[in-house]
Design goal:
20 strands; six-stranded mixed sheet; 18% strand; 709 residues; Immunoglobulin-like; 5 domains; alpha+beta
C-alpha cells in the first residue's frame, strides 16, 4: 500500500467534509438571520434566540448530509470520475500489495505517480461554500439595513407619539420663579397601574387618576394657582413658612390644558391628555347570527365568545329569551345563563365557551331562542352584543298540507312526493327490526330511486335535461385549460355557445330562486346517497331540509294583486289635439328661506384678519375683539382636543400679546387650526335656469288652434 497516495486520499476526504460543513454553517446562519429578524420585527423576539436557532438548523443539516458515512472508497470513486488520468484505478491504492497480481501492481505504480499531481482542494468542493458565503453576506447586509430603518422608524414614531400625546414633549417653557416641580400621577385602583412620578408639567394619564403637584420656587411668593382650560382656577397651598413650597392635588377626568400662575404671572400652556376607559368588547365566534336546527341534528348550541377590556373583565352573562307559540298566543320566558369560567382574576381577555341544551330550556320544535351576551368591566361599564336567534324545525308543521290546500299551488305534486319519501323512510326505520336484511336494503334502494327521479324532475327547472348535466361546480370553469386545445375553434364555440340544455343558461327563475333550487338538489343528492347506502336514518335530515327549502320556495312564489276600479273621464273631441292650455296653470312652489345665524362668522373674520396681520402696524378695538372671540373658541377646542389645538392656543396668545418674534409661524398655526374648525360650506339654493325656445312653441300652438277652427 502506497502511504503517500493513501494520505492524499485522506486529505481530499477531510477537505471535502470541511468545505461541506462550512457551507452548511453559512446556509444555517443565513436562515437564522432571516428567521430571527422576522421574529424580532413581528413579535419583538430577542436576538439572543439566534444561537439556539442556528444550532438546531445546523444540526439538522449535519443529520441530513451524514458526512460521517463518506469513506476513502467514496473519495476514490470521486477522483476516478473527476480525473481521467487515474484510469478508474484509485481503489488499488486502498488494497494491500500482497493481494495484487502483476498487472494490478503495474497499474498501481502508474496511479501512484498520477495521484501525486492531483490537488487536495477541488472546485466542486468550494462551489457550494462560495454560494453559501455570498448568500450569508447579502442577507447580513440586508438585515443590518432593515434593523437600521426599523430603529429610525421606531425613533420617529416614538418622537411623533411623544409630541402628540405629550408624554415626553419638546422642552417646556417654565417660569423663572420655578426651581423644581414634582408631579405624581396615581391611577385608579381598578386599573392596576403603577404610580408615576415626573418632573414635567405635561400630563398623560387615564381617566379618574389623582394628580399631585409639588412646586418649589426660587423666591418666596404670595400666591400660586393652576388655571384649567382658561376657566377653572385651582389654588395651591403653602407647605412651609418660607412660602417657597406649594402643593395641590386634583382628580383628572377629561383632557384639556392648564397653566401655572405665580403672583399674577401666567406660564405657558401645558397639555393634559386623558385616556378614557373603554367598555368591554365582545366577539361571538359561534354560532351564527341566525341558526336553524334541522330535523336529526342535536338540539344544542355551542357558543364561543371572546371578551376583552383594557383594564379587566369582572363578569359576563348570557341573557336568553324563549319564544313559544305563534300569533297572539306567543309566550316569552327570560332567563340568565352563566358561563363556567370564573372572573375572580379580572383578566383583560377571556375565551368563553358554553354549550346550551335547548330542551333543558324548554324549547320544542317550532320554538325560538333569542339570546345576547352582556359583559361588565372593573369600572362597572356594561356592553352587550346583538341579538342572536336559534330556531328548531317543526317537522309537524313542515309535513302539514295547509300550505298546499290554500293559496296558489305552484308544484303541489312535487311537494307531496318529497313528503311521501320522508314518510316512507320513517316507516322503513320503524319496521327495520321486523324485516329481513335483504328486504330492508331493497326498500331503502327503492326510496333512493324515487329520490333520484324526484331530483331529476326538479332539475328540469334548471335546464338539466339529463343527469349528466349535474356536475361538481369545483370542476367547472377549466374546460379550456388544456394546452392541447389551443386554437381548437370547435371546442371554444361549444364552450361559449348558448345551448338550451345547459343548466347554467336556464332562465326559468331569478338568481335567488335558482340558487335555492340548486341547494335543494344538493340536499336531494345527499339524501339519495344515504338511502343507497341503506342508511335511511341519516338520510332524513337531508330530506327534511330539502322539503323545507321547497316549501320556502312555495311561499316566495305567492303574490297578491288587489283589484282596483278606474273610470276615466270622457274625452272632448273638439279639444283633442288643439293645444289649448289656457285653463292649465303651471305649479308654483314658493318658499321663504331665512338666513340662519352663522356661528362661525367670527372665525372667518379672524382668518381674514390674520392674513393681513403681518402688514398691520397695530390692532384697533374691533380687530382685538375679533381675535379675542376666536381665541375663546380655540381654547374651547383645545380643552377637548389638546393634542390638535393646544399649539394654536399658545400661538394665539402670543399674537394677542403682541409678540412678533415668530408672528408668521404663529399666524400659519392659527390659520390651520381655524380651517379644521370651520365646517364645509353648504350650497345656497338658487333658481334653475330655463332654456328659451324663442317663441316657437307658442307660435306652433296658435297656428294649430287656428287650423282646427
Amino acid at each position: 500500500m502506497n502511504s503517500g497516495a493513501l494520505n492524499k486520499i485522506k486529505q481530499v476526504r477531510q477537505r471535502y467534509v470541511l468545505y461541506h460543513l462550512l457551507a452548511d454553517a453559512c446556509v444555517a446562519a443565513t436562515i437564522t438571520i432571516g428567521a430571527v429578524l422576522v421574529l424580532n420585527i413581528l413579535l419583538g423576539a430577542s436576538f439572543f434566540y439566534a444561537v439556539p436557532v442556528f444550532l438546531i438548523i445546523f444540526g439538522l443539516f449535519i443529520i441530513n448530509r451524514r458526512l460521517w458515512l463518506i469513506n476513502d472508497t467514496a473519495v476514490a470513486g470521486f477522483l476516478d470520475s473527476a480525473y481521467p488520468e487515474l484510469e478508474e484505478s484509485s481503489n488499488l491504492l486502498l488494497m494491500e500489495a500482497t493481494e495484487l497480481n502483476l498487472l494490478q501492481q503495474l497499474q498501481l505504480n502508474k496511479v501512484s505517480a498520477a495521484i501525486d499531481q492531483i490537488p487536495v482542494s477541488h472546485q466542486a468542493f468550494t462551489k457550494r461554500l462560495r454560494l453559501g458565503a455570498i448568500f450569508l453576506v447579502s442577507v447580513s447586509f440586508l438585515a443590518f439595513a432593515i434593523i437600521g430603518l426599523n430603529v429610525h422608524w421606531s425613533k420617529s414614531s416614538t418622537l411623533s407619539i411623544q409630541n402628540n400625546t405629550g408624554k415626553n414633549p419638546v422642552k417646556e417653557v417654565i417660569l423663572p420663579e420655578v426651581r423644581s416641580v414634582n408631579v405624581t400621577i396615581t391611577p385608579p385602583s381598578y386599573t392596576h397601574l403603577a404610580k408615576q412620578e415626573q418632573d414635567k408639567f405635561t400630563i398623560e394619564t387615564v381617566e379618574g387618576a389623582t394628580v399631585t403637584w409639588k412646586l418649589t420656587t426660587n423666591i418666596p411668593v404670595k400666591k400660586v394657582s393652576l388655571v384649567f382650560n382658561g376657566k377653572e382656577v385651582f389654588p395651591l397651598t403653602n407647605s412651609n413658612d418660607s412660602q417657597s413650597k406649594w402643593t395641590a392635588w386634583k382628580t383628572v377626568d377629561s383632557s384639556g390644558f392648564y397653566q401655572v400662575i405665580i403672583d399674577d404671572k401666567p406660564s405657558d400652556l401645558y397639555q393634559v391628555q386623558v385616556t378614557k376607559d373603554a367598555p368591554p368588547v365582545i366577539q361571538i365566534r359561534t354560532p351564527k347570527q341566525y341558526t336553524y336546527i334541522d330535523a336529526g341534528e342535536k338540539p344544542q348550541v355551542n357558543m364561543q365568545a371572546l371578551v376583552t377590556d383594557d383594564y379587566g373583565v369582572s363578569d359576563a352573562m348570557i341573557y336568553a329569551t324563549v319564544a313559544k307559540g305563534s300569533g297572539e298566543a306567543v309566550k316569552f320566558k327570560e332567563q340568565k345563563i352563566s358561563f363556567s369560567t370564573s372572573f375572580n382574576q379580572t383578566l383583560r381577555s377571556y375565551n368563553l365557551q358554553k354549550t346550551i341544551d335547548l330542551p333543558a330550556l324548554g324549547l320544542e320544535p317550532g320554538d325560538e331562542l333569542y339570546f345576547y351576551i352582556q359583559a361588565r368591566d372593573n369600572h362597572a361599564q356594561l356592553s352587550r352584543t346583538d341579538v342572536y336567534i336559534v330556531s328548531i324545525q317543526d317537522t309537524a308543521q313542515l309535513m302539514s298540507m295547509d300550505g298546499i290546500l290554500s293559496g296558489i299551488n305552484i308544484k303541489p305534486e312535487y311537494f307531496r312526493s318529497e313528503r311521501q319519501i320522508i314518510l316512507d323512510a320513517e316507516a322503513l326505520i320503524k319496521a327495520k327490526d321486523t324485516l329481513k336484511e335483504a328486504n330492508f336494503r331493497d326498500r331503502s334502494n327503492d326510496l333512493g330511486t324515487d329520490q333520484k327521479l324526484l331530483r331529476l324532475r326538479y332539475g328540469k327547472f334548471l335546464g338539466e335535461e339529463a343527469e349528466g348535466n349535474i356536475a361538481d361546480p369545483r370542476l367547472e370553469g377549466n374546460t379550456l385549460s388544456d394546452p392541447t386545445d389551443f386554437g381548437n375553434g370547435a371546442k371554444i364555440k361549444d364552450e361559449y355557445t348558448d345551448k338550451h340544455d345547459n343548466a347554467e343558461d336556464a332562465q326559468f327563475f331569478d338568481p335567488s330562486v335558482k340558487a335555492q333550487l340548486k341547494a335543494t338538489l344538493t340536499e336531494m343528492w345527499k339524501a339519495e346517497l344515504q338511502l343507497r347506502l341503506y342508511k335511511p336514518q341519516e338520510a332524513l335530515p337531508f330530506a327534511y331540509k330539502a322539503l323545507r327549502l321547497l316549501k320556502d320556495l312555495q311561499q316566495k312564489s305567492r303574490s297578491y294583486v288587489a283589484k282596483t276600479a278606474f273610470n276615466p273621464s270622457p274625452l272632448k273631441m273638439e279639444k283633442r289635439l288643439s293645444g289649448d292650455l289656457d285653463k292649465i296653470m303651471q305649479p308654483a312652489d314658493h318658499q321663504d328661506i331665512k338666513q340662519q345665524h352663522d356661528n362661525f362668522s367670527l372665525l372667518k373674520s379672524a382668518a381674514s384678519l390674520l392674513q393681513q396681520l403681518p402688514r398691520l402696524n397695530s390692532l384697533n378695538s374691533n380687530d382685538y375683539r375679533i381675535l379675542q372671540a376666536a381665541n375663546l373658541q380655540i381654547n374651547n377646542q383645545a380643552a377637548v382636543k389638546p393634542g390638535i389645538y393646544l399649539d394654536a392656543a399658545k400661538a394665539m396668545r402670543r399674537i394677542m400679546a403682541g409678540d412678533k418674534k415668530s408672528l408668521i409661524t404663529d399666524v400659519a398655526t392659527v390659520e390651520t387650526a381655524i380651517q379644521k374648525m370651520l365646517p364645509a360650506a353648504q350650497p345656497a339654493p338658487q333658481a334653475q335656469p330655463s332654456a328659451s325656445d324663442m317663441g316657437f312653441s307658442k307660435a306652433y300652438f296658435l297656428k294649430l288652434k287656428h287650423t282646427n277652427r
